[in-house]
Design a protein that fits this description.
Blueprint lengths: L9 H5 L8 E4 L12 E4 L2 H10 L7 H12 L1 H24 L4 E3 L6 E6 L3 H9 L6 E2 L10 E5 L3 H15 L1
Antiparallel strand pairs: 1-2, 3-4, 4-6, 5-6
Length: 171
């Protein structure tokens, strides 16, 4: 989501620093296009020419193409509003979850938060799923133990439901 040069390798494509670098971007989450599979690749011209030759015709539907073009037309405004909303909700989620005994939130600049709890991740995942809330079990992530889950930042209503459910589960 970030266009900050310190958080992206996109400037390396623009400056042609690496001849084999391809950056793939999805428009789905940042532009609020769920269910529409559309994105783009940024690469040096010779690599992009090879990609064009090997891409199947009509790999993007007309609807997805129109949505992508419209989203990119207002990209700066949409991305700014999305970043602001995610930051606001991230602060809310981290604030709520950090007050729950047995829950530790990691600091993040992403649109999700890594949470460690005293419960094992598969059990926590099941208990939250029973309440209609899905989280990512991170037990198989290198360097993490079996007590970590990843929680996506959503809208206030969903974030409140998550925090309430996690408080209930952790009692």
């Amino acid at each position: 989501m970030s266009q900050n040069p310190r958080e992206s390798v996109m400037p390396y494509v623009r400056k042609k620093r690496y001849g084999n670098l391809i950056v793939l971007r999805s428009l789905t989450k940042s532009f609020g296009l769920p269910g529409i599979r559309v994105g783009y690749a940024a690469a040096p011209r010779d690599v992009a020419d090879i990609l064009r030759k090997t891409t199947v015709p009509w790999s993007v539907s007309c609807l997805a193409e129109a949505a992508g073009v419209a989203a990119l037309r207002d990209a700066d405004d949409i991305l700014r509003r999305t970043r602001d909303a995610v930051r606001t909700e991230l602060r809310y989620v981290q604030g709520r979850l950090s007050k729950i005994p047995g829950v530790e939130c990691r600091d993040t600049a992403a649109n999700f938060v890594l949470v460690s709890t005293r419960l094992e991740a598969p059990r926590l995942q099941r208990l939250l799923a029973e309440r209609g809330i899905l989280v990512r079990d991170c037990s198989d992530f290198a360097g993490l133990d079996g007590h970590h889950v990843r929680i996506a930042i959503k809208r206030r209503r969903e974030n409140r439901m998550l925090a309430d459910a996690l408080e209930d589960v952790m009692r």
